[in-house]
What does this fold into?
Amino acid sequence: MKRIGVLTSGGDAPGMNAAVRAVVRTAVYHDMSVIGFKRGYNGPLMQNRNHTDDFEILTERNVSGVIHRGGTFLMTARCLDFHKQEVQEKAIKNMRALGLEGLVVIGGDGTFRGAHALNNLGFPTVGIPGTIDNDLAYTDFTLGFDTAVNTAIDSVNRIRETSESHERASLITVMGRNCGDLAVHTALACGAEYALVPEKEWYVEDIADKLKWGVLTGKRSNIIIFAEGAFNSLKSNMHELCHKYEALKGIENDQMTSSKLAHVLEVLSGHEVRATVLGYIQRGGSPSGSDRILGSRLGAHAVELLLNNKGGRAVGIRENKIIDVPFEEITGVIRPLNNELVDLINVLSHNTE
Ligand code: F6P
It folds into this structure.
């Protein structure tokens, strides 16, 4: 193999640049050249608005000074058309015309589905898990997760200071799609009282009771870390609660937002609750040391797989060992909730007084 491509796709994640750098430098070390495609799968499809900006040749020098930068310098996009076979074939045709013999893609579940399809169509493709969600079950960690947890921790620390000063409770919403890992890790690291996640059913009444009891027994810090996907696991019947509490009128299960939830908790507990949605702040920032190291290790391993004609696989990390797994074993496998960490949050926030 003499020339390979690399692209980043889906939501950006800190550490993607470190992975691209490792792909380029490992390839160059093995006498290969690398083309970096811009804006995810739009690059090989040559469908960026400015056609001179679909790709660039990446040398060791092009990837200098990127290891510490968040985001992705190759830019990213979600290419919704890429599930169509004719679109995948067009990408392969374009890549072959550029002399490419393999591709490394960095992204999440959707990105891997595209990579799997390319490989099945005969174009050797390897995936690197890059997403702050940590929702790919085959790897202990995805690239960007550690940084996002640390960013969330920093934000929660700040919110805690103001909420303690005002003796309020704080409902802090974190990202993660349908995976509660970001919420659980943040909650445990921040000493939060609760982590509400999509994988586990929950009732507003229970949270309000625990909050009320905490306040009664002199608890000054009441932090609820809420995973954005956890609206789907809310089991309380808001319709019934609305009948009971005039102040909740009009609040429906399927139209819940973080600020509405804070209001519900406030009404049920009688204690002031403020909502903060951390949003995109969690995706930005310089990657942590762990993510830089992980990106470097995964990037290097991805290139080695291509060199050994082992396309069709995703790289990952298990028990601090770099692994690779066929795409077939990955897609649709949902990471189970880490119940050990959830139980620990409950034990450490238990209030007996
Ligand atoms: O998958 C990463 C992620 O940040 C999720 O946590 C979040 O739900 C989603 O992307 C947001 O996507 P977008 O950037 O398209 O708004």
Observations:
- The chain has a mean pLDDT of 95.
- Residues 145-165 form the longest helix (21 residues).
- The chain has ten helices and eleven strands.
